[in-house]
Amino acid sequence: MDVKKTGLILSGGGARAAYQVGVLKAIHKILPKGHYNPFDIISGTSAGAINGVALASYAENYRMGIKHLERIWMHFSCDQIYRTDFWGVSASLARLTRSLLIGRGYKNDTVSLLNNQPLRELLTEVVKFDNIQGAIDSGALHAIAVNCSGLESGESVSFFQGHYSINNWQRQRRVGIRSRITLDHLMASSAIPMIFPSVKIHREYFADGAVRQLAPLSPALHLGAEKIMVIGVSGIAHKRKERPQSSSYPSPAKIMGHMLNAAFLDSMETDVERLRRINRTVEKIPES
User: What would the pLDDT profile of 247-264 be if each residue is shown by its tens digit?
Assistant: First the structure.
């Protein structure tokens, strides 16, 4: 009997991705002891991609992977993500200001508000990229996808590493490309535009995967998932909030927060709603 493949989808959301680890830990407690990896397919975006790839590298020992993830997030601090020292921040600001005022000195100069080299060094230590192919070969994992946003093409690109039977795909403004997942893919997927430097992969520079990601559920479905579990971080989507009365003009921080939510979080809720509607329609079609 062919067992349906289960997909895990981890959205972006910065530090809120720690919530995903809490959910995964709860699943780890529910499963019987010694249970294999419950997720055949993992698709991650931005901070969710970091969680997803870390989990995929421990697919042959799911419980150890959860403990490893929990340990990483328990000790996360700002200085492990970007340079917080005076000279590090000053150098990034000076580069950004120079670029805005007089242009870049060299065509490959990075333009960003912060220097995330500490995150690159941390991920080099904690993520065992070489383990991913071993997990795929042993059957503990079917596929892992890291989602990025192409700055030249404007496409949402899902770089995936998985079973040989999976083919590349192409849809409107979104594609899937087979690639061996590396540190560069993670750095690109979590590179918030203008905040962190974009990363060049093959021919193009890529930024945070949540930007222009119109169908975040799509990669897992293309990789073969027939059941999916989505761990988002944007709260209860179906619960309508009371509309508050504005007492003053919104602050720049509030406007910026609204824009960031629209760019990085809201597409997940829309895509889940679309998939539920499709499933309801399919259920009404007679099997004959």
Answer: 778 777 777 776 666 666
Cα angle value 18/19/23 (rounded, 5°) = 120
Residue with the two structure tokens 């499963």: 31
Task: Read off the pLDDT of residues 132-159 as tens digits, 9 standing for 90 and up.
Answer: 999 999 999 999 999 999 999 989 999 9
pTM of the model: 0.84
